[in-house]
Amino acid sequence: MNNSFDQMPDDARLWVYQCNRKFLPSELKAINSSLQEFLASWAAHGRALKPAYALYYDQIIVLAVDESSHGASGCSIDMSVAFMKSLEQTYGVSLLDRTQIGFMIDQEITLLNLSTIKEAVTSDKIKAKDIILNNAVSSVAEFKKSWHQSVDQSWCKKYFA
Fold it and tell me: What is the C-alpha separation between 63 and 110, in angstroms, rounded?
């Protein structure tokens, strides 16, 4: 697997896995190795995929697949989720919890439970110009354009009315 995340086409399919904490430097080295090994063998219906990955902020794993020659299937996507679950088990972390929303505050990622965001806005813990991580992006183009959004330009803008 020699695919570079930076060279993935804009229409490449994408998944964002946000960890509930930063990985330790020793964990990052092992995780990079595990990701390279997994992606080298990742296939759909016996055909190798053209995947790539990137790690951001020492706590976010982004997987992408160039589907121009062969697309990811339900089974191959299930394999990637199983791989993420194995990372969760190995490192005692959460990568699949979609109720935790990431915000960039003072150059650090702060995770808030979905149910506490309105209160965080009204108490001024989250400000309009803070950055929210839109982990629902599903292509490289969307990732480049709207992974980082100002809170007042995201779905949270309703709390600033």
Answer: 22
**Half-sphere exposure in the Cβ direction for 45 (13 Å, CA):** 5
- Looking at the structure, do residues 17 and 65 belong to the same domain, yes or no? yes
Q: How far apart are CA 108 and CA 26, in angstroms?
A: 20
31 contacts 55 by C-beta, under 8 angstroms: yes
Q: What are phi and psi of 38, to 5 degrees?
A: -60, -50
Last residue of a domain, one of 91, 112, 138: 91
pTM of the model: 0.92
Interacting residues of 93 by C-beta distance below 8 A, sequence separation 6+ = 19, 20, 21, 23, 87
| 106-160 pLDDT tens trace | 889 999 999 999 999 999 999 999 999 999 999 999 999 999 999 999 999 999 8
Domain range for 140? 100-160
